[in-house]
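Take a record:
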Amino acid sequence: MLQATSKTICSIKPLQEEWCGHLYDRFAHSSLFLSKCDNPDNYHQQLLENTESWIALREQKIIGFICMNWKSDFPPFQEANIPEITTLIVLPEMRNQGVATALISRIELKALRACRRIGIGVSLSPAYQGIQQLCAKRGFSPSSYGLFYRKQPVEHNQQVAISEDLQMYYMKQRL
């Protein structure tokens, strides 16, 4: 349980099949969730088989979700066998209460016991300042791979839109 003074904020649990429908209902509005989810049933199957996924619960309702792919789709991470956090979502009304920190702590613990490093791709859009700051606080450092726009490396002097598609990849190493 994550504690804030004397009040319990949330509990962190591994994603189980019975929570998948609730997960989709809670976060289907999120563009981050929808971008990975054309078919909710297929997405649930992917979550349960190919990833490490955890949920944050408050009063038996999902308030946050994190997903890590043990085999990253990002080629440099894939080649180096670096697992990647692919999704981190917290309901807007629950942000800045330690929920994302609790979720990322749980995933880090699992990943860094099994691997030397863990990675995350973060949008450089101003809308993602919270996760950018959280990565810095948690000890993630920018990777040497540079910027990516729509999964392609950004070349010197290339013009790109500042949107969710502009990303920088970060890594954290086991001490």
